[in-house]
Write a structure and sequence with these properties.
Layout (H helix, E strand, L loop, with lengths): L7 H6 L10 H12 L5 H14 L9 H17 L8 E8 L6 E9 H5 L14 E8 L4 H15 L4 E4 L3 H13 L7 E4 L1 H13 L3 H17 L21 H16 L8 H8 L6 H24 L3 H13 L5 H18 L13 H18 L11 H4 L6 H10 L2 H11 L4 H9 L7
Parallel strand pairs: 1-4, 4-5
Antiparallel strand pairs: 1-2, 2-3
Helix pairs in contact: 2-3, 2-17, 3-4, 4-17, 4-18, 6-7, 8-14, 10-12, 12-13, 12-14, 13-14
Length: 443
Amino acid sequence: MKTKKKSQNEIVNSIKPHGHQYQVGLIQLAMHLRSIGGFAYRAITKGIEIFFSFLKISISIPHFTTIRLWSLRLGLFRLSKTIEKADDWIYLIDATIKCGPRKCLVIIGIRLSSILKRKNDNLTLTHEDAVVLDLYPCKKLTGEVVSERLQKASECTGLPLSIVSDRGGEIKKGERLYRENGKLHEKYFYIFDVPHKLARLFEATFSNCDRWNEFLKKVTYTKLQVAQTDMSCIAPPVQRSISRYMNVDIQVGWALAVIRAKKQGKLDHFPKAKVDQCFGWLDEFELLIIEWDQMVNIAESIKKAVREKGVSMKMYEELEEEIRKIPQDSRNVSIFANKAISALREEVEKLPTGVTVIGTTEVLESAFGKYKELSHQYRGNLEVSSNTLSLPLFIGEKPTEYTVKEGLESTLCRNFFKWCKELVGETMASGRRKILAQGKMLW
């Protein structure tokens, strides 16, 4: 069914939510720019101003803080909505923290039946496929807290068919407590997020490998050497300080690309002495890099299959045959391939016969990434604060006129401030203002 395009007159002349100055159409436009376009709050204000001035329409433009409050109130509204109870809910659970004392536990739910109905048999999840079931900022995230929040979510949706997570310490304990203390779905099973499981396999393979550690040191040295030169365009990627084994493919891919570029003469326009100084060391690692690249290809094939086909015995059998066709030029690669297949097999064996389920939390990680990017635009830091309420706006159906009107009329400012006081408390920004500010903050 095609969505009817909205004219500028409909945006300007649409009804207003009770007690609000601005039209529903304008608020909906702002929320789409935020949730779909990824605009910062100030950019939304400027964008609306430019849009209507270009159309020569005189309209009152909302301040960016007004748009922010709309966004967070609508996020709280989505959190408080009644969820349809069913016996095929799958929970994806994770916690996020960047700086400051708080963590934020997030549980999103996906109806398995709605995913399996797709005609193209591609189970790749989008943000619109999910709904936020719980969002809980706290200073101390424990297994008991995780178990309690899982219990609260299951009271809203019915007992979950499955829970998928990266098995971080608190979440692993929380799932165990939930399983031991609560009533469970008759077919319940717990899936270890496959990309994270493969990252642990990379960690076990590389963490004590002297040549890998030497490779990373030389990558760091090379980045410093070329940072302010003409060769900065081919500088190595930044190494992650946490979850670094989730990005082995980036480091190995860069090294392999530089080796190929050298062989093809694409670096010949740079001074040869400088190229040899900065990148000559890659020659002695070439065979190892090819070996590592084959390991990466195996892991990427598994992640792609899990993303697109879910986890099932049928998928496993097809993938096992495909993995055997990937070049494995050394004993180390063959050992890695066998371990990767065995890791996937462990998850498949948990499933009832004939069942296909989601095996990755990538859609939740993607929402976290979007939230962190936009939070950085707003305050320059990634503290867990009231801005976490924007997460429910990124996940689920696009805001409609009806949901915008209903959300703003039912979730008042006092509801939002109460939620912030009870769950967030004093933030780093408010503490900084209280202690250090004697006028306008300059940082």
